[in-house]
Structures are given as structure tokens and as C-alpha cells.
Amino acid sequence: MNAQENVPRVRYIRASTDKQIASPETQRQIIEEYAGRLGRNVDRYFIDPATSGKKRLQDRTDGRELMTTLLSRDTVIVARLDRLSRSFIGFAQILDSWTKLKVGIHLCDMPGGTSILTIRCPR
Asked: pLDDT tens digits, residue range 68-118?
């Protein structure tokens, strides 16, 4: 087992008013399947209720807890980018903060395809 396999992984889910596309159950399934393909276990979920995507991550209850509990070398897996942030600027701010902390991020099941964006922790 290498050091990368020991890195804690956290998952973030924000419920949607559109139950068919982004329900917490659907997001959890996407994340579980993705983690399974990586051969990793799910360590912890942060789940916010359906709120406006315009609300910053740190202004949501579990989003704030996620932001304050992340440690260097943690990895966050999010089922869909729009669950994390609705604006490019908001996502850029999150990414900048997490890059400084050396937190990796995986964005699964991007709208319009099955591509996955992975941003690895800087060494």
C-alpha cells in the first residue's frame, strides 16, 4: 500500500430541487461507484440540503464544515460541479483555497458526458 492510498477522502453533496438529476441518493451512488472504481472506501459525506447554488460553499452548513475540516493531502469527490459551485469565480476561489492546502478534487459525471476532472495535490 503506498502513501496515496492512505489519503483521507471526503465527499460533498448538495441536494437539488430537481430530484431526478441531482438527488442526494443519485449523487451518493455516483460517488460510491467512482470510489469503487478507484478501489477506495468512502470516509465521510458532507451533505447540504437543497439551497440556492448561488450560496457560497462556505455559507452552507456542511459546506462550511467541509472547508474548515480539510487537511493537507485530503481529497474531495463531488458528483457534479454544479453541486459545489454555480459560478466559475466561485469554483476558482474554492480551487485556489484547496490548492494552497494541497487538497485534491475529483469531479465525476460532468453534464453532457462521463468525463472526470481530477486535480491532484501538488507534491
From this structure: 999 988 888 888 888 888 888 988 999 999 999 998 888 886 544 444 555
Q: Which domain holds residue 122?
A: 28-42+64-123
Q: Would you say the pTM of this structure is higher than 0.85?
A: no
51 in a structural domain: no
Strands 75-78 and 104-107: parallel
Q: What phi-psi label fits residue 80: left (phi over 0), alpha (psi between -120 and 50 degrees) or beta? A: beta
Number of domains in the chain: 1
Domain-embedded: residue 114: yes
Closest C-alpha to 21, from 78, 68, 83, 99: 83
